[in-house]
Amino acid sequence: MICRTISICQGKGSIGHNNRVFHTKNTNPELTPNNIVFVKQPIKEAYEQLFREAVERYNARQKRNDRKIKNGYFEYQFGQPVTETRLTSPDKRKSFYEDVVQLGTMEDTGVGTVDGERAVECLCEYMKGFSERNPNFHVFNAVLHLDEKTPHLHIDYIPVGHYKRGVDTQNGIAQALKEMGYGDGKNAIAKWRQAEYLVFRKICEKHGFQIAEPKKSRGSLTVEEYKNYCADKKRLNDKLKPLREMELAADESTVVGKKQLLSHNITVTPEEFEQLEKEKKAVAVQSIDNQRERDFIKQRNEEIAERSRELDKREVGISEKEEQLDTLISDAKQLKYDAEIIHEQAEHDFARAKSEREFQRDINEKYSKLTNEFYKAERENDRLNRQLYKIRDILNVPRSDSGDETIECCREIADENYQLKSCIAKELGLSYQQRKDLRVTDMLKTLVDNFKCRIKSAETEIEENRSIIASLRDTLSKLKDEFLKVVLGINALVYMEKYNSGLSGFGKALAKGISLFIDNCFKNRGEFDLIDKCEIDSEIRKNMELFTEKERTKNNSYYER
């Protein structure tokens, strides 16, 4: 059974490549629809989901607006708006992390083969349990690629850690690994990767795969250097392979006498034997050259091994420096946090001192105002005492008399004076500021003058109204007389046969209704018997004779023609 390798390594973190926004030369676009997408969440939405509430809690604790996070956690941590390109912050945090998981190679577990399909089942089962095993890794994008040579899985996740200082929920791989039980330090990620390797290996073995022991990694060599090293090694092995076969054949072949059986029971002639001797000598020469080549390759391998050891030492030194740098960064963060606390305390003390200074200044201002008011009160007291003396003189009360009756009398007079002054001011519409400088006598004089003006204006208005009423009465009397003429005319039209002979039944009914309505109106007002009907009737008849004479003349002239 073929032993297959397992690979769980860190990816480049290209979301566009993983989701096939663009294609590279090693992909087959026709097979892209076969890719399996487990999760596809925009990174902006993922950051909002993970850190928005933590940022709100952080901002709620801040007393200064310049310390609040205004543009979201991503821009606060990485210094620019949300992007799908993987970014690294000044404190070495990455905007997201990616792991690539693969079983086998394109030679033994290629896409489209039976083993490739089984490998897809293993990768799917591994992915389904990833989030449950790693609760602090929020997977926002996960794709199984089946449009390349070998099935492999890209997992993109954001590590979530919880902190006591600053924002309580942050992007932090070290804290996330610690909370998941993998400890502190640089070995935490190695422990986590080893645990995931064992999980995936168990899944693969359950599906019938035999897993080879993991090979030594490329160490500190770059990918390009490691590829060149493997290519050189393969080229040298291919070059030495025929030489080794020739050397082995030469060592195993012996020729004795004229005829000799070789290893495969073949007989040779003397000429062939001589030719074989020559070839054997050539092989011996070639063996010497091969030995030299092997020595060169050995020396080259020793140089590569020495270089690898030096690179390992350099990597250890770099790791130590990175640990020292991480420690320094952590100490710097702690110092920065302590400095911020001290600064906040200083600002709080400064604000409190400023508030106390303002409070003291207010007290001083109030004391100054109270002192001025006290002096004013003393002056007012003197003025009132002088007024009291005048009032006592008016009331014939001795100045030395301090009896209650005198005080009560003064109070009553003052109250009456105040009420009288208030009533007059209200009548005049004066404000408090206007009336306080006026005496009651002046206000009474002004009030009397106002009343006189009002009476004079009212008399003038009454005279004007009287003339208007007289005119209206004359007009109404004339209208009444004219209206009566119309009424009597209608009555004549109703009750005199010679006038209503030409009316129809409906016309007579209408005229009678109008006549009765008007008669009732006058009877209700009690003016029906006061009408001089004869005078009005003679005038109506006179006017009607004019029109009937014209009509008669018109008709006679018509018949005469």
Task: Please give the radius of gyration in angstroms.
Answer: 62 Å
How far apart are the termini?
149 Å
Instruction: List SSEs in N-to-C order.
Output: EEHEHHEHHEEEHHEHHHHHHHH
Approximately how much beta-strand content do the residues carry? Answer: 5-15%
Tell me the helix content: 55-70%
Uncertain runs are 249-265, 557-561
Oligomeric nature of the chains: single chain
Number of helices: 15
Largest beta-sheet characterization: 6 strands, antiparallel
What is the approximate shape? elongated
The total count of strands amounts to 8
Descriptive key words:
66% helix; two-stranded parallel sheet; elongated; alpha+beta; disordered C terminus; six-stranded antiparallel β-sheet
Sequence-ordered SSE layout with sheet pairings:
Blueprint: E1 3-4, E2 6-10, H1 15-18, E3 36-40, H2 43-61, H3 73-78, E4 97-103, H4 114-128, H5 130-133, E5 137-145, E6 152-162, E7 169-171, H6 173-179, H7 187-206, E8 210-211, H8 223-252, H9 270-394, H10 404-428, H11 432-435, H12 440-495, H13 497-500, H14 505-525, H15 533-560
Parallel strand pairs: 1-8
Antiparallel strand pairs: 2-4, 3-5, 4-6, 5-6, 6-7
